[in-house]
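Hi P.,

Sorry for the delay on this. The queue was packed all week, but I finally got your sequence through. Input first:
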Amino acid sequence: MRVLAAVLTLAAAPAIAQDWKSHSGDEAFDAETLTARLSGQTLTFYDDGRSVYDSNGEYQYIYGGGGTWYGHWAVADNSRVCVTFVTGVERCDRFVTNGDRLVLQTADGMRFPIRP
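Then the structure:
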């Protein structure tokens, strides 16, 4: 019984962790609009890191100081984009607009604005 309780707790944890800590003015995307917004685009962050969302579903994160992580991206519900890296690790982040700025939110509440 304890094993079942532990498994159920772990299964529920991702849902609990994704509060997203939205700010006033945040506007989410529907899946179709977010797919169109990202497909074929390169987003540049203020640390010069770049996320490349190829239209064929391939993904690259290029660090500002060098180095690249490769994977595949897909739009999920609630304005989220999930990337499965070639290592098998998956992460899901949420995109919103706030005013005229595009912002990436991590599940733990960090916010990364995208350069215009």
